Amino acid sequence: MRRIRMPGGGVMSVQTVCLRWHWEPYRYVRHVDGEPAKPFPDWLADLRRRAVTDAYGDHGGYRPDVALRPVRRGTPGRARRGSYPTMHANTT
Fold it and tell me: Domain of 74: which CATH number?
């Protein structure tokens, strides 16, 4: 997990777990500070395609290749999580 520093110097209040791509303000990158993003598992892509198929009857070629999970830490012992299921297709 890492905290994102914004262009104005502020640091986001959430930490982010990134799969396959790291998010930086206004773009996605493969490496941050020399560290690659964690792999994006096939099972997660399959799950997302099935969800789109269930909702729309067809996945239309949807190929998700990134997942971001912001985690906000609250009171000790009571971590609050905000989930934003960010999944983009064909980011390359």
Answer: 2.60.120.590
